[in-house]
Amino acid sequence: MFKKSILFAVFICLNSFAQHNFSTYYAHKSLERSIRVSDDIIEGRTAFFERQADEKPLMFQKTRVRIAELNRLSNNLSKFIVNTQEEVNSERVLYNLLDEDFYKKILFKNNGNLTKRGNQLKVKIDSLYTISAQVNVHRLSQLENFYEDHFKTNGEYYDHDGNKISYFEQLFYDKSNYGIMMSMNYLLLDVKTYQLLYYGTVMSY
C-alpha cells in the first residue's frame, strides 16, 4: 500500500511537471507564431506600399523615406533580439538545460546595471523610440501611446508596490531564463506591432 502511494505521488509530480512544460512550450510557440504572422503581413504591406510609391512618387516620397527609416531601425532591433535568442537557444530554455541566471547575465551585471549587450539593446530601443516620434508627423494618439508605453526607456515605471523602477526592470520583471526569453519575444512582437500600426495609419490617408 505504501509503495502504491509513493508511486501515485511520483506520478502526480511528473504529470504536473509535464503539464507545466507543455503550457510553457505552448505559450512560447504561440508567441513565435504571432511574430511569424506579423512578419508575413509586414512583408506584404511593404510590397504593396512600394508599388503605390512607384506609381505615385510625388505623393508618397516623404512617406517612403519615413517608412524606410522606421523599418530599418525596427529590423535592426528585431535582428538583435533574434540573434540573442539564437545564441541562448530557446529549446535549451524551454527544457531547462541552462544554468540558473544564464540569460540574466547576458543583459545585467551583478549590481543590476546593464551589461555591454544590455546597453546595445537600450541604444536600439532608444533609436526606435526617436524615429517613431519623428515619423508620427500627424501626432496620432494611437501611435504616440504605443511608442510611449513600449519604447520609452527613460519613462517612469512602477512595480506592484508603487516603487519606481527602470524600464528594463519593468520589461524583465521575471529574470528567470524563461521569463527573460518571453520578455524578449514580447518586445520583438511589440516592434512588429508598431510597424503594422504605422502602416495602418499612413495607408489610410
Describe it:
- The chain has 205 residues and is mainly α.
- The protein has eight helices and two strands.
- Strands 1-2 form a two-stranded antiparallel sheet.
- A hairpin with a 5-residue loop joins strand 1 and strand 2.
- Helix 2 runs antiparallel to helix 5 (116-135).
- It is globular, with a radius of gyration of 21 Å.
- The model is unreliable at 1-20 (pLDDT under 50).
Protein structure class: mainly alpha
Distance between the termini: 75 Å
Would you count the extended β strands for me?
2
Strand order of the largest sheet: 1-2
Largest β sheet strand count, sense and barrel closure: 2 strands, antiparallel
> Number of DSSP helices?
8
Order of helices and strands: HHHHHHEEHH
Low-confidence stretches: 1-20
Shape: globular
Helix content: over 70%
Keywords: Signal
Organism: Tenacibaculum skagerrakense
Protein name: GldM-like protein
Layout of helices and strands:
Layout: H1 2-55, H2 57-88, H3 90-94, H4 102-107, H5 116-135, H6 141-150, E1 157-158, E2 164-165, H7 167-171, H8 177-202
Antiparallel strand pairs: 1-2
Keywords:
about 200 residues; mainly alpha; two-stranded antiparallel sheet; 8 helices; globular; disordered N terminus
